[in-house]
Amino acid sequence: MRLTPSRGLFVAAAVVVGALVAPVVTAVPANATEYPSWQDVQRAKGNEQTKKTEIARVQAALEAAQAAAAAKSKAALDASEKADRAEAELASATQAATSLQAQAEQAAKTADRAQQRAGQLAANLYRDGSSSQMTSRIATAKNPDQLLYQLGALDQLSSTWAGVMDDASVAAKTASSLHDQATRAEAERADLADAAETKASAAKDAEAAANAAVEDTQEHSDELYAQLASLKDTTAKTEERYQLGQRVAAQKAEQLRKRQAAAAAAAAATPSGNTSSGGTSYPSTGGVVVDPAGAQAYARSAIGAYGWGSDQFSCLVSLWTQESGWRANALNASSGAYGIPQSLPAEKMSAAGADWRTNAATQINWGLAYIKSAYGSPCGAWNHEMSVNPHWY
């Protein structure tokens, strides 16, 4: 996957809203979305103007049902990424602390051996703590040759003694320094362990809130699409696809506006290609089924609704293999682009469904609608992807 700052301009339109709302409740709070009733829908059918007003009301409720939700779903994704990053930092700190502790222990053993060697040498040099055997022998020597030999031996032993003492001193200082470093490393590891635990708990709570919100939002969305279908004399599926197309078109228009504004602002700045990407990570987002083969199978079954054949599917495979490897939890660490189609920001995919964070099919539905709106076909998107460097679509 290759994403550039140009891809970073791939932003949501004002009408794009999130996918999740608050956890399931039996009563709607005063400040929550006010959903049209079926009685309202039936009454509106008797008058064309009233029907148009009710359609607008249902559409507004549909968007409002998903409005606060993008934040919940995105919060769960962000919390998961932070928890994974904290866990990785903890693992690295644990490895460093363990290594320093082992080095400190080894240095302490080396210092002990140096001290033992110094003690052994001292025992050879001195009979006791106050008199020197070698000094006595030199003082009583009568043969000049013997005197010179003994003087040389004394000088050699003295040099050896000095070297051994230096070694012992260095080893002791090294052991002390490594012990201090190991102590600091362990303190850092303990702090990171606490942080990792806190972030893991936060990720779990955010995921629970997101999952509850998805269920609630999907329930309301299904009913609202059915109400639109009743008002327009179509089907819920038709209305769902229509609304997705409308929202993606609005996203594309906003994306183009932002990109043009950024291009003008960046004309005198550093070219976007000089900015490095943060690489790809795969957050441990609960509920995500990572199944590239299954995702491709679903995409193959979905492209027919757009009138595309096997040649277009081949381009789609190439496109999303490069972008995400067809992994539903692919996250660009630098830009925040997410999912199989690498939506940026991730919550733009809420236009296709509340479960965009975890559901590959929802991601694919949004991605296909975006490709249709922006490039006309998967091959059009793939040709654009390969025509720019770094690659993006």
TrEMBL record:
It comes from the Bacteria. Residues 176-218 are annotated as: Disordered. This is Lytic transglycosylase domain-containing protein. Residues 76-124 form a coiled coil. Residues 1-27 form the signal peptide. Keywords: Coiled coil, Signal. Residues 181-192 have a biased composition (Basic and acidic residues). InterPro entries: Lysozyme-like_dom_sf.
